[in-house]
Structures are given as structure tokens and as C-alpha cells.
């Protein structure tokens, strides 16, 4: 809070407290010329009389005690501009202390799973129950309660991993997050062949997902023409065969369970506008042990331990 705003708050508080004290004093006393309590002449229904009397002393004194309490409160706790209060208490400090206490409790609960390999955790039913609970609280908002994702959010139950599906790669993703960027190429392609070049490149990408790409290219003129644009612009990230690069997060373009709809229009949108996908880091939120548990649960969705029953969705 700036000095100017601090003085504004201080002035406002002082004026309010002083105003309350003055109002109590002003209304609690009788003034010359006030009618006696029985002389107001305000009578209703024959026997209900209005008396002109101040509040009882005990009631007035309660109000004064409240004012004194408020002054003491502002001395002890923050609330008087930038003055931090004699106690040094802050809501942020109280939150941090409570969080530290809760974190210690969680460490005691999850400590037995610290540093265990993900496949080992995946074979422990109790660890998987905890991992499933953490997933529901932390990950389901994006990936869905069944972990099957949505457009722009990966399906975690299949074998397609843009950043690699090895246990340690999944753990790294959970801990430190990922950021994948597909740059917009619409302007570049328009300069190479107009809007039709964008459509041809999109048709070629879609052809990569066919069962027999050679036959598709022989029968699809637009896809065949789009290969030269793919070779000129896309191979640096997706590779000459379109199978992607897990070091860059460049997706495998030959799989059918794609991150965005496998339609020509959707692929055109990706080429023209690009895509920007962010998986937030959870190291600070979960800590390493809880991140390890949820990573083991995610890994288990597509790598069930031998002899284990299939995961119920």
C-alpha cells in the first residue's frame, strides 16, 4: 500500500471511531429545552406513551467499551494503514504456518512412498488409491475424471505420449510441467502457394494417419502436393516420417488418437494459427512424493502391472 493510501485509511479509521464516540456523547445527554419524559404528548391507543429518554447508562457504556476494544484491536493487529500491528500477525503468515503444519502431516502419510520407482508404486493398491485421489483433485479438471482428455488435453490412458511415456519422463512432466508450441505457419504457406498450399499441407498431415499412406497419396492429389510443404517446414520438429520428437513435445502425426480433432478444418486451423499447450508444474503444489504417486497412477493407466486387473474407469 502506498503512503498516500495508508494515510487515507488511517484518516478514515480515526474519523469513524471519533464520529461514533461523538455521536454517543451527543445523544446520551439531555439538553436545555428538552421536554420531560412525560411531557411529549405522544400517546397511541390510549395508553402507549412515547418518552424522551436517553439510552440506559449500561448500554451507552457497552458502546464505549466497544470503541476502546476497536482501538486495542488496531494496536495489536494490522488494519491501521501500513502499521503492521504490535503482534506482527498477518493473514499470509497464518496461512503459511497452517500450510507448513498440514504439509508435515502429509509427509508423514506419504513418506513411506518416497523415492519408490513408479512401476513399484503402480503395483501397490494403497499407493494407487492415493494416486487416484490426487489425480481427481489436481488433474481431472483438464484430463477428465477418466483421464481420457479432451480436445487440447491429452488422453492419458493410451500409448501416445508427446513428451515420452517412460516412468521418469511422466514424473518430470508432473513435477516441472511442459510447454509445447506449434508456431503459426499460415502466412508462410500463403507466401509459398496461397490458401491452397495450406489445404494441401493439411491434407498431407491427415494422410499420414491413414493405414496405407502410399496408396492415399496416389489417390489424393491434394495430399500428394502437400508433401513438399511438409518436407520444407515441418520435418524439423515432426521428423521426415511425421513421428514426432518427444524431446520437443512435437506430436506423432501418424497416430489417429490426436490431441485435436482429426479433421481437415482442424488441421488447417493448427497450421494457420498454431497451438500453445501448457501443462503446469506441480512440484510446489504437490511435492515430490505426491507427484510420484500421481505419476505412478498415470503410468499405470496404460501400463498395468502383470497379473493386475484392468483399471476401472
From TrEMBL:
Principal location class: membrane
Pathway given in the UniProt record: Energy metabolism; oxidative phosphorylation
PROSITE patterns with a match to the protein in the record: CYTC (PS51007)
Domain Cytochrome c, chain residue ranges per copy: 126-209, 221-302
Cofactor annotation comment: Binds 2 heme C groups per subunit.
Function: C-type cytochrome. Part of the cbb3-type cytochrome c oxidase complex.
Keywords: Cell inner membrane, Cell membrane, Electron transport, Heme, Hydrogen ion transport, Ion transport, Iron, Membrane, Metal-binding, Oxidoreductase, Repeat, Respiratory chain, Transmembrane, Transmembrane helix, Transport
Cofactor(s) annotated in UniProt: heme c
Matching Pfam families: Cytochrome_CBB3, FixP_N
Description of how the protein assembles with itself and partners: Component of the cbb3-type cytochrome c oxidase.
Compartments, record wording: Cell inner membrane
Top-level taxon: Bacteria
Lineage: Bacteria, Pseudomonadati, Pseudomonadota, Gammaproteobacteria, Lysobacterales
Family of this protein: Belongs to the CcoP / FixP family.
Protein name as catalogued: Cbb3-type cytochrome c oxidase subunit
Regions that span the bilayer: 6-26, 58-77
